[in-house]
């Protein structure tokens, strides 16, 4: 039941009445140890806010529970947060802005060890050397500054930094979206290898379903702050139940001409609703190709629609997509 709200002011400046924008609205999910949960959705869906809330990195009002091995991370005080931050680390989206340009690569990677642990200088040096090798950088590059690295190499530094405290969970916030396609594949393969090597659990944020298909064990699809579908990877990609997920998947280009022939593109008309004035019914109703009258009045609840498959749509019955008719 995680929710995150931000105070905002409407047009009218300082004297306008303050109101709240609910970026993440009462969502629940589980990530199994050693696996990857992808959270996907368009800009403004709440996916990044939800993931960064896990690492206690959002400034909004957060409510609900975030349980790591049974312990709620939300009420932790400053000292306990240090312990939690060793276990939950983040790889940020933009390797150009997430590294301090005035620090050498080795100082950047060592920073979490300095602030969160009391390891000796020699222990830290040994860890940093090991991490440079683990992420495919040469130890001689340790003394260089971020601007002396390529984008892919910078993201490797960001990954090494996230690994430095031996975390259990890593939030990967669109870690390849700022990189060239060829470099994306290298970084994704590196992340997969490190996951196996160190037994890591990933929460992987992305708007790119091609990337998600390569990385995840399960997927949660978010729309306007809500999870609208949540399933194991195969189940979601082979049988998307929510009309929004089906439309997202239909937009993924395929290199297979047969598949291209078979799959019809489902267009989503219009824009998402105003997040400060959400409709009382289904938030997707104004854009949904199969919306009914009841969709505008009653908000659908996320319900089980098959083993390990949940969807929030009035028309979803027992693993049957409401779009089955219009896609053929
Ligand atoms: Fe479309 Fe209605 Fe399902 Fe919402 S509840 S996704 S509007 S069919």
From TrEMBL:
Record flagged with keyword Kinase: no
Family per similarity comment: Belongs to the ABC transporter superfamily.
Superkingdom of the organism of origin: Bacteria
UniProt cross-references to SMART domains, sorted A to Z: AAA
Localization terms from the record: Cell inner membrane
One GO process term, biological-process aspect: peptide transport
Species whose genome carries this gene: Sedimentitalea nanhaiensis
Annotated PROSITE patterns: ABC_TRANSPORTER_1 (PS00211), ABC_TRANSPORTER_2 (PS50893)
SUPFAM superfamilies xrefs: P-loop containing nucleoside triphosphate hydrolases
InterPro entries registered for this protein in UniProt: AAA+_ATPase, ABC_transp_ATP-bind, ABC_transporter-like_ATP-bd, ABC_transporter-like_CS, Oligopep_ABC_C, P-loop_NTPase
Domain ABC transporter residues, every copy: 8-249
Keywords associated with the record: ATP-binding, Nucleotide-binding, Transport
MF terms in GO: ATP binding; ATP hydrolysis activity
Protein name stated in the entry: Peptide/nickel transport system ATP-binding protein
Lipid bilayer topology: Peripheral membrane protein
């Amino acid at each position: 039941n995680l929710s995150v709200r931000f105070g905002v002011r409407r047009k009218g400046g300082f004297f306008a009445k303050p109101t709240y924008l609910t970026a993440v609205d009462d969502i629940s999910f589980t990530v199994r140890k050693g696996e990857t949960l992808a959270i996907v959705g368009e800009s403004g869906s709440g996916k990044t806010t939800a993931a960064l809330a896990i690492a206690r990195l959002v400034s909004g009002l957060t409510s609900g529970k975030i349980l790591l091995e049974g312990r709620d991370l939300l009420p932790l005080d400053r000292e306990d947060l240090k312990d939690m931050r060793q276990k939950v680390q983040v790889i940020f989206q933009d390797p150009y802005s997430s590294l301090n340009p005035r620090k050498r690569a080795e100082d950047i990677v060592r920073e979490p060890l300095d602030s969160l642990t009391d390891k000796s200088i020699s222990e830290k040096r040994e860890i940093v050397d090991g991490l440079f090798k683990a992420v495919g950088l040469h130890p001689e590059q340790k003394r260089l500054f971020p601007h002396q690295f390529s984008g892919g190499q910078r993201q490797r530094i960001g990954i090494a930094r996230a690994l430095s405290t031996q975390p259990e969970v890593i939030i990967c916030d669109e870690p390849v979206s700022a990189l060239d396609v060829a470099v994306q594949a290298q970084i994704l393969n590196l992340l997969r290898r490190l996951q196996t090597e160190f037994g890591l659990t990933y929460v992987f944020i992305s708007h790119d379903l091609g990337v998600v298909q390569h990385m995840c064990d399960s997927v949660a699809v978010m729309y306007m702050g809500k999870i609208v579908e949540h399933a194991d990877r195969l189940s979601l990609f082979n049988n998307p139940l929510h009309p929004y997920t089906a439309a997202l998947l239909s937009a993924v280009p395929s290199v297979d001409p047969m598949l291209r022939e078979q799959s019809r593109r489902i267009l989503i008309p219009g824009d998402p609703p105003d997040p400060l004035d959400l409709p009382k019914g289904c938030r997707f109703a104004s854009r949904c190709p199969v919306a009914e009258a009841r969709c505008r009045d009653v908000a659908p609840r996320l319900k089980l629609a098959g083993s390990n498959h949940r969807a929030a749509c009035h028309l979803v019955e027992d693993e049957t997509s409401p779009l089955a008719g219009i896609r053929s």
